[in-house]
Design goal:
The chain is α/β, with parallel strands linked by helices. The chain has a single domain, classed as Rossmann fold, CATH 3.40.50. It contains 15 helices and 18 strands. It has helices at residues 9-20, 28-37, 60-63, 66-81, 99-111, 113-116, 128-142, 208-216, 236-248, 263-266, 303-313, 323-329, 332-337, 346-360, 379-382; strands at 2-3, 26-27, 88-93, 119-124, 147-150, 161-168, 177-182, 185-194, 197-203, 230-234, 249-258, 260-261, 277-280, 283-285, 296-298, 301-302, 316-322, 369-375. It has a seven-stranded mixed beta sheet, with helices on both faces. Strands 1, 2, 7, 8, 9 and 10 form a six-stranded antiparallel beta sheet that branches. Strands 14-13-15 form a three-stranded antiparallel beta sheet. Strand 4 (119-124), helix 7 (128-142) and strand 5 form a beta-alpha-beta unit. Helix 4 crosses helix 5 (99-111) and helix 5 (99-111) packs parallel to helix 7 (128-142). The protein is globular and about 65 Å long.
Amino acid sequence: MNIVSKNNPFLEKIFEIINNSPHKKITFAEYMNLCLYDSEYGYYNSDKIIIGNQGDFFTSSSLSSDFGELLAIQLEEFWQVLGKPPNFKLVEMGAGNGNLAFAIINYILHYYPDFASHVEYIIIEKSQTLKLQQEKLLLEHFNDDISIKWKDWNSLGDNSVTGCFVSNELIDAMPVHLIRYSQEKLQEIYITENNNKLFTITDSLSHENISNYFQIIDIHFSKDIYPDNYQTEVNLQAIDWLYQVFTKLKQGYLLTIDYGYSAQKYYHPQRSQGTLKCYYQHRHHDNPYVNIGNQDITCHANFTVLEEYGKLFGLSNLGYTKQALFLMSLGLGDRLNELSNGKMSLTEILQRRQQLHSLINPEGLGNFCVLLQSKNLSLLQNQSTLKGFSYK
């Protein structure tokens, strides 16, 4: 497939990287990583990135503070279950523009002052542009009220975290390998260059881990089940990320929220083009070779992968649910009921109701998956009934 793109400095940089690679080709994962995270031209390091109604996409935390406030209720309960450790590290990975952290911290300070005095809020952020936005928002508002730090994975010591790792819409932005099942074998899609144009080619798998990946999640490709030229994605970075969390977590939780599927749904034979999508000014399409560096590229998260690899690493799977159920269990229904208390105008009620319903809409954010995993909890702690999973 020939991909025609207008010449620009970023494209020239990609050409140079391709031509300096050993086989004059790069994986789609390498290409996607450049498009999103290149320090000079990547989408997430661009000054043009806006999260919210005026940007390319919005998140639960960009709609209102409710999402973060309800999460704060769950996080305080984690602290209680762990026996109120004096240094509870709350590590948010990929904090966007800081709205989620702001809502969580603000709620904790107002409603859980005892918890707040024992919290260390740590942000791990890959994008320098977003990190600056986070610092401006959080340090100006909270300053000395609570401990807020920015760290990278290397500065976070092994077995140093007693508390909780949290990610919201992080995995969907991780670079993925594009895989094609063709002529009864798995192949991989690569990016190459010829005459200042990008091309895609197929070749053998770049990693043995890709074959192991499908075995571990019990997906077996066969011509009797899958159509020829079936295309999908493999997120090896999510596995590396999960292991990294495991090594840093001494005792506590990993809470993952994202849009995604189980492996059986993700690799359903009818999903023959995978889940890869691009977002540009709230419009989505499936061409990652246009708007290079100016659009978001995403794929759904595979929650079976997180569960199965988590077990291999030593994490326990405590709960798996949908965001709508999770937030309702934490009190979103009570917030809806409060709209009838007569303290708001009709316009305010309608706006508030829309915000809350958006978080639980089964055709949107409410269908996001919520996975809770733990490490080194006692049997009693692991069996604790948690507010966000009390529907069980």
